[in-house]
Amino acid sequence: MPQAFEAIFDRHFDAVHGYLARRAGRERADDLASQTFVVAFARRATFRSDASDARPWLLGIATNLLSNDRRAERRLLETLSRVRGDARVAVVQVGSVGESDRDVAAALAGLDPAQRDVLLLHAWGELSYEEIADVLGIPLGTVRSRLSRARASLQAELETVDAAPPIARTQREVW
Amino acid sequence: MIDELQRVKEFRISEPAPSEAARNAARAALVRAIAEGNTQSRPGRRWRVPRLRAMAIVAAAVATAVALLGVFGWGGSPAGPSPAAAAVLNRLARLIAAQPLTPQPGQYLYVESRSDYPSFSGSCETLAVDHRQIWIGTDGSGLIRESRGPERFSSAADRAACLQADPKMQLRSGATSNDWFAPQCLALGPTNDWNSLSSDPQVLLQQMRQIDGGPATPGEDFVHIGDFLRETDAPPAVRATLYRAAALIPGIQLLGTVRDHDGRSGLGIAYPSQGPYASSGSSSELIFDPQTGELLGEQGTGPQYWAVYLREQVVSALPSKPPAPLKPPCVNTGGTVKQIPGGSITTGAGLNATPTPANP
Fold first, then answer.
1. Where are the domains of chain B?
2. For domain A70-175, which architecture applies?
3. Chain A contacts in chain B segment 268-287 (CB below 8 A)
4. What ipTM was assigned to the predicted interfaces of this complex?
5. Which residues lie closer than 8 Å to B59 by C-beta, 6 or more apart?
6. For a 10 Å CB count at each end of chain A, is N or C smaller?
């Protein structure tokens, strides 16, 4: 393995895997994180910097790969938002789940996928607006607009949940 | 205001590190790929849909949406469009259709703006005034020249929240940049395939939902109108159809004569309770020049933001020569740009870098 790419892999594999695992679950992340580095190597000509700056580029590739198959992410969010229904099964699948996690999962599930990509690259990947625009290949204005809309939807959804009586919450979680 | 983003940040934050087995398998796969020298390898499906195919997908989806519209009617929104707002928008549509904003080959559409949008972090908000000059060529090449003012806190509360989260936090100083784009690489709106858009305003509303994504609501339709108009090279005829489409959105309001951030008067059209914080009684406004029909500015509350569009005109040349030959294909540079004196150069994160259709 060329030394530079080995450094990129060593430095960023955990971060890329962690981002994907939060979005699509560990099993899917094992596969997608591996694909991310294979694609990154194939596209290394498009990256002209040192390894310390590779993280946004890699997260962009990971996000694009994830967008090819949204089912894993959707299943994970479904499971998390329904965890009250069969807690034992859910805990085995996704680990322990707090009440806040259930609500956030339901709110994230309700977002448009393109908005979710921008939101999570920002919130979890800690990418700047400019970096998101670059790695997703979308205009900066679109990043702003998608992020604002995602936050508005989340806030409205979470406020609804917080204000809802228990019976309404149960119904809402049948997703 | 900050709570929802913080909750997302904390969501599944304790996801454990990958297993050694997963790391080793990934490393082995990478070693294999390198050994095979297969730089063309793409796992799974292509993640860059060819543009024509993408447009065909959008067209098919729109055809379906339009067919459903015929069956089920218009979305069941209780409030109809505002007749006063619709009348003004239809008049503005006639004005904009006649504006000389269509560059010929070799010419550029020049758009100059200043804006002040909040930037969110996990704990607080900051602002920075952004002066942008854009030259958009008919071949999709061009230049974005940007001068960003120093970052500042949105409020004293934001300052306190920022510093509490990170006592060493430093505001960014101003910066300037020149980003050059090779032909077919400059993408400023949700699409630049303007010919694919319908001249029927009701069909256009559906197309925008397909292309720009988001929930299928009137408020979101108003957002789409802004997205397609703002700093784009949408031809005058398309702009006219966008105005006529806006006239169909239930819930829009005519504000009458308003002033933009620079104090220029224009006709304001607003959609209330649809902004970055929908539940806070916010609103977003588009302001139009009553003489030319051009988009003059935007502003909104909750949080506060503004943009003024200072000039939009056809020009015959770029302000300077590109520092290096710019050739397609567009390359997504992944956030890294080659530094040149006074700015940066990139071949653009353009059409081919997007897993189109824009919102799968």
1. 51-353
2. Orthogonal Bundle (1.10)
3. 274-279
4. 0.82
5. B196
6. C
